[in-house]
Write a structure and sequence with these properties.
Blueprint (H helix, E strand, L loop, with lengths): L39 E3 L8 E2 L4 E2 L3 H6 L3 E2 L3 E7 L3 E5 L2 H6 L11 E4 L11 E7 L4 E6 L6 H4 L3 E7 L6 H4 L41 H26 L1
Parallel strand pairs: 1-5, 4-10
Antiparallel strand pairs: 2-3, 5-8, 6-7, 6-9, 9-10
Keywords: Signal
Protein name: Phytocyanin domain-containing protein
InterPro entries: Cupredoxin (IPR008972), Phytocyanin-like (IPR039391), Phytocyanin_dom (IPR003245)
Length: 239
Amino acid sequence: MAGLLRLPAAAAAVAVLVAVALPASRAASPAADDAPEYRNHTVGGADGWFFDAKANASSGNYSGWANGETFYLGDYLIFKTNDNSSVVHTTNATTYDLCDPTDDLGPATYIYGGGGGGGGGLEQNNTIPVPLVQEGTNYFFSDADDGAQCQKGMRFEIKVEHGRGLPPSLKNPPPAPKERVLAPPPAGTAFSGTGGVEPGDGAGDNGGAGRSGAGRAAAAGGRLLGAAVAVALAALVAA
């Protein structure tokens, strides 16, 4: 865990929720024309996504909350949190079981937020929007405090159904972010046009450094290339 770059996340403005009245019940696999509109899900409801260091417990029952929701491609999960906790989004069950993304080199694992851990201080409040772009099982947890927050209940899994499919703005997402990024919502989604998210280095709202496996591989490749160039120049000088 120590190898991950930890940067505080800037507060992002909450965009208006999609003004759609959802039916009381929905078919398990509705046809695209009959599927509900895209919507935003506030994780944990009023409890938010927080960890109480004094009580050594999370602020809500996230698995229970998730069991009461239905999720579709193109929806957003809204994490109301602070820089004491992080949000790890993955489709890797092993990473989820370990509460640790350190050795996960897959391109579908992302870390959002600060995750400084500790708690009990005056942490910066943040709102983190995470789009659902992978159908099937998705996992979420906080890796702060060396995974202790995850082990104490800051974790849940969801089943993402197809619904209407991805909106055009999410069908061609930007390249994988670099170290630890808060990705801004693409134009045309429920969160576009609010002006509350500032682009950072590649895809962030705080200029911070987020992570994906692809981003780490690219960075490592750049370092190896630089070393090779240096060796070649030294050989030419010696000749």
